[in-house]
Amino acid sequence: MSKKALSILMRARMRPNSNSNHSVSPLSLTNAVKQMQRHRNSREGQSAGGASREENSASNDSGSSEREFMHVRASMDSAVSMNKTEFLDDALNNFSEGYFSFSHENRRKLLLLLAREYDLNRSQVCELIKQYLALELPADKAQVSEEEGLFASFYRIERNLRHALKPVYEVLFERLNTHPGGLRFLSILRADILYILTEENIASLRALDSYLHEKLSTWLSPATLELHQITWDDPASLLEKIVAYEAVHPISNLLDLKRRLGIGRRCFGYLHPAIPGEPLIFIEVALLKNIAHSIQDVLEDSPPIPESEATCALFYSISSTQPGLAGINLGKFLIKRVITLVKREMPHISTFATLSPIPGFMQWLLSKLACQKRLAEGDMSQTLTEGSNLTFYEKILKPEEEEALMSLPKDLAMGQTGMETMFNLLTSTSYKWIHSSELVSVLKSPLMRLCARYILQEKKRGKALDSVANFHLQNGAMVERINWMADRSENGLSQSAGIMVNYVYRLGHIEEYAHSYFSNGEIHASSDLRHYVESDKKQ
Amino acid sequence: MSKKALSILMRARMRPNSNSNHSVSPLSLTNAVKQMQRHRNSREGQSAGGASREENSASNDSGSSEREFMHVRASMDSAVSMNKTEFLDDALNNFSEGYFSFSHENRRKLLLLLAREYDLNRSQVCELIKQYLALELPADKAQVSEEEGLFASFYRIERNLRHALKPVYEVLFERLNTHPGGLRFLSILRADILYILTEENIASLRALDSYLHEKLSTWLSPATLELHQITWDDPASLLEKIVAYEAVHPISNLLDLKRRLGIGRRCFGYLHPAIPGEPLIFIEVALLKNIAHSIQDVLEDSPPIPESEATCALFYSISSTQPGLAGINLGKFLIKRVITLVKREMPHISTFATLSPIPGFMQWLLSKLACQKRLAEGDMSQTLTEGSNLTFYEKILKPEEEEALMSLPKDLAMGQTGMETMFNLLTSTSYKWIHSSELVSVLKSPLMRLCARYILQEKKRGKALDSVANFHLQNGAMVERINWMADRSENGLSQSAGIMVNYVYRLGHIEEYAHSYFSNGEIHASSDLRHYVESDKKQ
To answer: Nearest CA to CA, how far is A292 from chain B (Å)?
Structure first.
């Protein structure tokens, strides 16, 4: 999963863990939790226990902070340099507990110190490199077998070089990986690193991240993960995690959760033996007669159809729980395994589809409209000298769409051009346009058409610009259908004017589609979808 | 575990798997099995089904061998270069099945090809190295934080260099590791590599082995292994493995096996999720009143004492099942976990000891005696010019021992000196010396004394020369006691004149002892043991 895809799939709604003394969440979540707490407190009038604790710990900083810092730093150093396993466990525990108790600033300081002071030994690398260059390669490869002896020195220095190129912090990572709770701690460490990197681009920290990312990818290979069907019989502590981390369609109450685990529904998670009771990623599935058109159909489908009548397994939500695992595509393997499992258990199910958000559509469309508006106003020079992006005037709307927008009554919509009117409508407070059938009927056609274009044609480095589209396409899905008014929630309207998309995983074509998308960015789409775009071209 | 220790702990008595069409055992075992088969056939008069199949497949070689070889080679190549996971699984299956069907010669050819043709890209490494040397390190490390930017190029090239230094065959290893059955296949591949290396020292193959060894160490870290108590309720297919692989004290029949899993006994194995139903290593434990003096006491202790009366957990056998995992110390972690587990379940047990063979004692003693005999005969010049090892004349026997040996009646023992007499007695056919109480009483004193010296003082590169001693000492045990006539089996007599040793794992001192042994070769021993050696010095 790309970092971006994951970050979107993952906007975790985590509840603070009130019976813990430490903040065992990454920085990003700590902040998110603070905001949520404030939000919920103001909305629900709850006591601000969690939030005030967080703030207290932050204001404590200046006092004992330096001493604390030195203490945790010392335990980190022991954890790297120690040889005896008995004390090593203590050092690792002290280090992780100390780290969890740290303020944002101390975490940042410690991570930078780890990245810089526990780096590799460059003079040793240079020494080996010089030895290596002094060796002479046998000219003729065919002679290799006779010259085995010659190669022995190559092998030796290459092995030494491989070791010398390992940063010292690898020892810490390796040790934490085999330490109880260590893998989870590493995932939090990485979440913090990523959070800091969004604020400052620090080369050493970026190198630390890239190394940790590689390590985590190896440790979390699909072979090490256990597919677990999450049911109402699971421990409440696990189900609580599902509620906390469901990122796409928040679970409103216990009944809602129970329905998502009940008849006609499935929920599967990937668990790692070292992080028990907490799926790293989970997917929610609805068993339906046909591919659903709207998320409300799925969430409020009560009672569900008998499972024996289902022909479609609809993946309506996939959520990662670990921001620190960004860039590790667990979702791809999870989807494949779930397809295999469902197909085996219910051979009557022949369609595997998603009902997915289009998180980037409105942002893309509004910036496009704003830019064209400026260009249309003759503000050409400014745009060009800004040099931010060379954009040329483009008729985003078809003449008939432009016309329909311009002919709207002025009390409903304002604007010098159709594009401006559209921009104003889409940015209106409380999405008032959806309450007017006249506005809806005028906007539907251009929005659907532009949405198809956004999904099928807007690319970044050869890959779909939309993060969720990119996620499913790289997993081998095709774009089947876009659905008008499929998600009327505030979130759905602000992301994609309420439009949702069905991606379909076609059995027997998954690898082929993944491959052609991977190698030349080709996006497979149904003829309906292609029709939107082709009519666009003819214009 | 050192390779040597493991190779000794592991002399596998594997039964051929008669319902398989392929030889899925490593080369070394295939040969061992052939020998065993012949042995058993001649002894037990069984049909030679297994052995003749092996030989047939070997004699088939010349015919279709080349075509077969090219076929498996092609699947190996696909397994390395392929991107699509669907076909990748097929390629990996074809490769492993093809490999299993190979003769010794074809396996050797394929492994050499893998080592040489799927090596790393040396010109790419050289290119990166030159780029690296062109960079300039900031002179002052304190300036680092201001010069972050400068470091970015270092990080980049170091990362690229790390990747370039990975041989191409790493892809194959990584893919096999996550492929069902792949880890077991890799362990067999490595067993074959090690077997070939005992016959020929090939640099590229040694590099392949060293790389695979490192990979396997990571994948088989104790965190990935499951401790399993093996009981009579386990599947017969697993129990069969215990019978096949018990290397130290062969299991003679079903009753014997049942007793080893019954009251007063425990058997624990380490299982890896990817190699189900087959422990990688297992340990057999007897719950006793005191540390046992002889293996017969343990094996024939019937009925065992009530478990509630036990104060000692005696590790009387530890066997590895995978020759391909040589050099990966699983035993150390297994012993520690078993100690923790037993201690928790039975707090009345306070002593954790072994009753261990001394596999190298007789070999060491006989070569010492032979050498001294030659020196005594004035054959000094030859020894020195051979230059094999500069050995000086040494009074191996104390005067009273020498005297006792020389005063034996001539019909019992022959020799010009005490040492020669001893040598002749110890190498006599069928160990006839143990049947004469007179000979036993004369030999006991020098043999016990020299055995203590062998265990406590004979070193190789600072570590105990005896492989089993080295294994337990590096795990943190101390030498408690040596036992006369502790193993009267043919094997016990030929290895160590029937002497066995108790190593003790002293709770609270395990790490300390392991550390002092690791850092300066210090061997902790009971005062009784030290007494043997000190009296030796006074001489």
So the answer is: 29
Instruction: For chain B, positions 56-85, list CB contacts with chain A under 8 A.
Output: 83-85
Nearest to B120 among A133, A158, A515 (CB): A158
Interface with B, mutate which of A88, A140, A145, A148 (most B CBs under 10 A):
A148
Pairing of strands A265-271, B312-320: unpaired
ipTM of the complex: 0.75
What is the phi/psi pair of residue B28, to 5°?
-60, -45
Contact B511 A207 (CB under 8 A): no
One-letter amino acid for residue A116 of the chain: R
Q: How far is A412 from B8, CA to CA, in rounded Å?
A: 89
Among chain B residues, the shortest Cα distance to A509 is held by: B86
Segment A310-326 mean pLDDT: 94
For an interface test with A, give the residue of B81, B82, B86 to mutate (most A CBs within 10 A). B86
The type of residue at A244 is A
Per-residue pLDDT, B413: 81
The residue in chain B having the minimum alpha-carbon distance to the alpha carbon of residue A519 is B83
Residue with token string 């009117």: A421
Active site residue B356: yes
Burial of B348: CB neighbours in 10 Å, binned 0-12, 13-18, 19+ = exposed
Give the CA dihedral A289, A291, A296, A298, nearest 10 degrees. Answer: 50
How big is the CA angle at A372 (ends A370 and A374), to the nearest 5 degrees? 70
Query: In the predicted model, is pLDDT for residue A520 greater than 60?
Result: yes
Q: How many CB atoms lie within 10 A of CB A399?
A: 10
The rounded distance, in Å, linking the Cα atoms of A169 and A498 is: 47
A35-59 as b/e: b if 16+ CB within 10 A: ebbeebbeeeeeeeebbeebeebee
Q: Return the residue in A155, A197, A515, A516 with the most chain B beta carbons within 10 A, the one to mutate for interface testing.
A: A155
Question: Which amino acid, B244?
Answer: A
The greatest distance separating any two alpha carbons of chain B, rounded to the nearest whole angstrom, comes to 90
* B47: its two tokens: 């049909």
Determine the Cα–Cα distance for residues B185 and B216; give it in Å rounded to an integer: 12
Chain A residue with minimal CA distance to B223? A178
Of B85, B165, B511, the CB nearest to A158: B165
Evaluate if residue A86 carries a pLDDT over 90: no
Query: What does the alpha-carbon distance between residue A322 and residue A25 come to, in Å, rounded to a whole number?
Result: 10
Q: Beta strands of B245-333 (E only): which ranges?
A: 265-271, 281-288, 312-320
Token code pair at residue B322: 């995978």
CA distance B395 to B399: 9
Count of Cβ atoms closer than 10 Å to residue B517 Cβ: 23
**Does the pLDDT of residue A169 top 90, yes or no?**
yes
In angstroms, the CA B450 to CA B445 distance is 9
pLDDT score recorded for residue A466: 96
Residue A65 annotated in active site: no
Which residues are bridge partners to A354 per DSSP?
Answer: A315
CB contact under 8 A, A223 and B274: yes
Do A168 and A122 form a contact (C-beta atoms < 8 A)?
Answer: no
**β-strand pairing of B478-483 with B312-320:** unpaired
A120, A122, A125, A126: CA torsion to nearest 10: 170
d(CA A537, CA A530) in angstroms, rounded, equals 11
The CA distance from A527 to A481, in Å, is 9
* C-alpha span between A102 and A70 (Å, rounded): 12
Name the least confident of A116-120, A193-197, A342-346, A411-415.
A411-415
| E-assigned strand segments in B349-415 | 351-354
Taking alpha carbons only, the member of B60, B13, B165, B52 closest to residue B491 is B13
Whole-number Å distance between alpha carbons of A110 and A98:
11
Interval A295-311 mean pLDDT: 87
Q: Nearest-CA neighbor of B283 among B257, B313, B253, B317?
A: B317
